[in-house]
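Task card 7
Instruction: Convert sequence to structure tokens.
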Amino acid sequence: MKIKGHNFTIGADPEVFVKRYGKLSSAYGLIPGTKDDPFIVKNGAVQVDGMALEFNIDPAATLEQFQKNMSTVLDQMTKMVPGYELFIQPVADFGFDYINGQPKEAKELGCNPDFNAYTMKPNPRPDADTPFRTASGHIHIGWREEPVDPQDATHLEACQVLVQALDLYVGLPLMCLDPDNRRRQLYGKAGAFRPKSYGLEYRVPSNVWIGKELTRAFVFGNTVKAIEAVFENPDVGLTKLNGYTAKEVIDNWDGVRTAQVDAEGNMIDGTAHPYEMAVLEAFSYHNVPSFRDYLPKEV
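Output:
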């Protein structure tokens, strides 16, 4: 797609867990493919990532292609693990005993460092000594016609402002669907990203959005909105919402269970938490589309 004269594509590399006979099970060794050598499938690739399965999709320039890539690769991966069901949740409580019984490669967390778009410093390596594992739903954005050095100063500056905008347009609203803060203790704090030779990888979201067409449409559409917003105002990601920035809300969401705000941005009952009010303010006064904006239009 072309935005302000630049060609942009959007991709993703989510992770999912598996269950067998209704119980969580390690996905280690279930399918071919590794981080260094993913197994190519139609419209993307699959691999094992620790105790989870991971897939990536081909870059998409339209929502229709994005949806097709996501559903096609998910369907193929499901068929590759007969006898198992995919468990699409950000946190899987395996327990220490089960995790400690896994091979070393399955227990390891983290690989290449990611960075904080507010400090531009590397984020700490996550601690693997937990009784749970987490699953992400990272978003990849490409705009470079030719590969660039990911550490190029101009490229990093572009990544920084876009990631901050993505926190406002994508990461903040997804908090309504992902109140469990345990993943953000390890991964996915506000501003988490990796610069890439083609653009960037936005690493804040969990996998909470990948299973439904509505939330996939939201992620694609609001990623486009974030890109457009940055061209108009590079500091849009630092907007104050009910007195807080998107960064402050994402990093301090612990304990908010979104009891008063539903996924479409509606007040349900009673008094919302101040962070929920920040999300509502983004929807109401700062042109951040909510989930309801991607509901199918009535004919």
